[in-house]
């Protein structure tokens, strides 16, 4: 067996047998599912309907409000306003919607009141405003002598069909799902780098403090040790991720079936919103599915693997070099910051810039720069990326990776035998020349 | 006598600091070779180069006549001064791993391990973790992993530190047995009494330079001062002293003796010990006559403080 595979095997076994690894592996999904179950449970509890009182002196608007799971509307127009106001303070009504009698319809625009001791949600107010606005608009049409049916029929909904010059059809909008898919992959890479990069660093520091390092590198090259360590740790990480995925899947579905709770559903969506959106939802769902099928899934998966390997190796070489340079974990902080920054930058650029303008200069540049490309490019891929950019980005990533590994192994070689001194950045650069 | 390790004009610099300045050594096959020197003399740098942990800036190293190359690690066993093992790894697994890194097959490593564990009476430790062992026990494991792959060149950096006298003796005997079976041993140490006892060759490094190298007896001969310790029973102390001081330099000395004799040290300069003896015999009964042989400690201190 070659020495590198021996090292990989040892690192893998050492990681997997570690108590905290075992605890983390089996506890994390439990915790995650427990939290999800709690949220689901709380959501199902929230079925408590909020009662809204309506005092409509005009009698025009009562018909606009339809009861839903979240809100029920009660017509209290017959009761004296002052009495209603006083009673809502201590009865079960959430709030009172008050329509005064006004001379002209225009006056409604500023005269309607919502009286409540608790501030209502923005969503709720927004829905009410749009419902009332619609109603008044309709009435304005009537007053102006317009044929409302004709107007309704003449409203046109335009859907521009997007297509690429290659003739391939695409669907517009739905950027959210694209960024969600790309973002999930990008985020996964970032998490993996941070968690397991740190493990690589810790294992380097451990060998240094154990002083076994001198014995090991009198048998193998520092470069072999470093690569073996990085690969062994990543294999342990992949195993952990797989276990998480499997346990998570089983628990998630097991519990959701058992409790009959739809944990994925966003809780307490506003009634009006749901009602208004319901019709669109059906067609939107189909669009989502259609869009999902048109995503470059093959490219995405292949790129994910490539960027995962390139990005992880690139960063963990940094981590290994830092581990070699310091004596203990506390000293590593000053060196870690510049490493985590591009990762965080990548995520921010991904979520803000890519979503707005997937092919803009900023998104394009950062998807090619090696330190951020694993995250940003993965977020861009669902939007369609020219093949030359993809190739350039991957080539750059891997050449940087080889360069960094070379530098890191230099620092590593010198650093692992240096004790008792917290090095400065300047010294690290000097070590490269030894 | 053949040479197992030939080092020519080795230079190693760290930035502006020179750790080794054109150091050349030759270690005879089958010898126990003491590598001496104060802290910071360059011993560790030299040992790391032999182990190919670091590369020299210039100069060359030959093992058994071949220029040092990566496969040679299989022929070298190294026990660094800073002992280290994986604390949370089991003794057996760890030893197997380290032996395999040195190029042994798993099967072969297992056979060797069984042999050594039995020999040092530590069979019961296989499944123990290093952190469960005492320091001395861990040292024994460390010794085993150093010699496991039957290296022809063994390098021990302060091998006896951390051992109690009983275990230090066991290890010493094992080292001597390894030498008898053909291994060459390089000792790096500050403990002069163990050098005196074990080494047949020594080299002295000081401030990145080699000061002395050679067979221990040759080095001692080189440092002999031609002084003799004398014990004599005489009536005429004054007369003797007058005669002696005319010819030689006399100094006070002390040694163990059962007689109530006069004790002094005579520096002969160019003259022969027989001349001195003749003079002494005329004056009384000689009870003690011994050449001052410089100890390794004397040589060390003398060379370093020059």
TrEMBL record, chain A:
The chain crosses the membrane at residues 21-43, 179-200, 238-261, 292-315, 335-355, 362-381, 387-408. The keyword Transmembrane applies. It comes from the Bacteria. Signal peptide: none annotated. It is found in: Cell membrane. Keywords: Cell membrane, Membrane, Transmembrane, Transmembrane helix. Residues 19-409 form the ABC-2 type transporter transmembrane domain. InterPro entries: ABC-2_transporter_component, ABC2_TM. The keyword Transmembrane helix applies. One of its GO terms (cellular component) is plasma membrane. GO terms for molecular function: ABC-type transporter activity. It is a multi-pass membrane protein. This is ABC transporter permease. It comes from Flavobacterium orientale.
UniProtKB/TrEMBL annotation, chain B:
It comes from the Bacteria. Keywords: ATP-binding, Nodulation, Nucleotide-binding, Transport. SMART domains: AAA. The gene is natA. Residues 5-232 form the ABC transporter domain. Coiled coil: none annotated. Belongs to the ABC transporter superfamily. This is ABC transporter ATP-binding protein. InterPro entries: AAA+_ATPase, ABC_transporter-like_ATP-bd, ABC_transporter-like_CS, ABC_transporter_ATP-binding, DrrA1/2-like_C, P-loop_NTPase. It comes from Flavobacterium orientale. The keyword Cell wall biogenesis/degradation does not apply.
């Amino acid at each position: 067996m070659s020495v590198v595979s021996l090292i990989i095997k040892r690192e893998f076994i050492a990681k997997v047998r570690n108590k905290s690894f075992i605890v983390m592996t089996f506890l994390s999904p439990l915790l995650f599912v427990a939290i999800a179950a709690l949220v689901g449970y709380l959501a199902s509890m929230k079925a408590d309907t909020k009662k809204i009182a309506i005092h409509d002196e005009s009698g025009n608007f009562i018909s606009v409000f339809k009861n839903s799971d979240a809100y029920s509307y009660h017509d209290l127009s017959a009761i004296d306003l002052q009495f209603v106001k006083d009673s809502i303070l201590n009865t079960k009504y959430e709030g009172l919607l008050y329509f005064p009698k006004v001379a002209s319809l225009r006056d409604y625009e500023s005269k309607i009141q919502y009286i409540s001791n608790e501030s209502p949600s923005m969503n709720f107010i927004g829905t009410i405003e749009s419902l009332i606005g619609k109603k008044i608009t309709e009435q304005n049409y009537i007053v102006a002598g317009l044929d409302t049916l004709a107007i309704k029929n003449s409203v046109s909904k335009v859907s521009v069909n997007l297509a690429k010059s290659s003739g391939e059809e695409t669907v517009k909008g739905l950027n959210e799902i694209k960024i969600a898919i790309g973002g999930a992959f990008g985020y996964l890479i970032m998490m993996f780098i941070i968690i397991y990069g740190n493990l690589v660093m810790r294992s380097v520091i451990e060998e240094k403090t154990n002083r076994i390092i001198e014995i090991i590198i009198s048998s193998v090259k520092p470069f072999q040790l470093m690569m073996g360590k990085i690969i062994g740790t990543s294999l342990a990480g992949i195993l952990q991720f797989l276990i998480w995925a499997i346990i998570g899947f089983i628990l998630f579905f097991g519990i959701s079936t058992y409790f009959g709770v739809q944990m994925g559903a966003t809780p307490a969506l506003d009634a009006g919103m749901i009602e208004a959106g319901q019709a669109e939802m059906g067609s939107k769902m189909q669009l989502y599915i259609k869009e999902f099928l048109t995503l470059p899934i093959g490219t995405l998966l292949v790129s994910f693997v490539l960027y995962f390997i390139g990005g992880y190796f690139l960063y963990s070489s940094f981590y290994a070099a830092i581990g070699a340079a310091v004596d203990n974990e506390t000293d590593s902080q000053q060196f870690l910051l510049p490493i985590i920054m591009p990762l965080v930058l990548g995520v921010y650029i991904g979520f803000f810039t890519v979503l707005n303008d997937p092919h803009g200069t900023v998104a394009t540049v950062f998807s090619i720069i090696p330190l951020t490309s694993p995250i940003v490019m993965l977020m861009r891929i669902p939007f369609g990326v020219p093949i030359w950019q993809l190739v350039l980005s991957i080539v750059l990533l891997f050449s940087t990776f080889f360069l960094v590994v070379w530098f890191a192994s230099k620092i590593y070689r010198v650093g692992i035998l240096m004790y008792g001194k917290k090095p400065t950045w300047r010294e690290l650069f000097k070590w490269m020349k030894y | 006598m053949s040479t197992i390790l030939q080092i020519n004009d080795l230079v190693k610099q760290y930035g502006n600091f020179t750790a080794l300045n054109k150091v050349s050594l030759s270690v005879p096959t089958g010898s126990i070779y003491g590598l001496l020197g104060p802290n910071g003399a360059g011993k560790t740098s030299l040992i790391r180069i032999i182990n190919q942990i670091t590369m020299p800036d210039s100069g060359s190293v030959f093992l058994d006549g071949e220029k040092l190359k990566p496969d040679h690690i299989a022929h070298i066993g190294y026990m660094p001064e800073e002992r280290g093992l994986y604390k949370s790894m089991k003794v057996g697994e760890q030893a197997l791993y380290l032996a395999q890194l040195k190029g042994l097959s798993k099967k072969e490593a297992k056979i060797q391990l069984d042999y050594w564990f039995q020999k040092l009476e530590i069979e019961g430790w296989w499944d123990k973790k290093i952190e469960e062992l005492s320091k001395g026990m861990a040292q024994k494991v460390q010794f085993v992993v150093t010699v496991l792959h039957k290296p022809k060149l063994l390098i021990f950096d302060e091998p006896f530190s951390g051992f109690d006298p009983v275990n230090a003796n066991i290890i010493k005997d094992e080292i001597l047995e390894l030498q008898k079976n053909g291994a060459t041993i390089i000792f790096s140490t500050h403990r002069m009494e163990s050098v005196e006892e074990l080494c047949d060759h020594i080299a002295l490094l000081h401030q990145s330079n080699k000061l002395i190298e050679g067979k221990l007896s040759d080095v001692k001969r080189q440092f002999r001062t031609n002084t003799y310790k004398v014990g004599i029973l005489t009536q005429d102390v004054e007369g003797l002293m007058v005669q002696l001081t005319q010819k030689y330099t006399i100094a006070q000395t002390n040694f163990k003796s059962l007689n109530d004799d006069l004790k002094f040290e005579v520096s002969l300069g160019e003259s022969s010990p027989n001349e001195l003896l003749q003079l002494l015999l005329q004056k009384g009964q000689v009870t003690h006559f011994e050449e001052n042989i410089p100890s390794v400690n004397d040589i060390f201190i003398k060379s370093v403080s020059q």
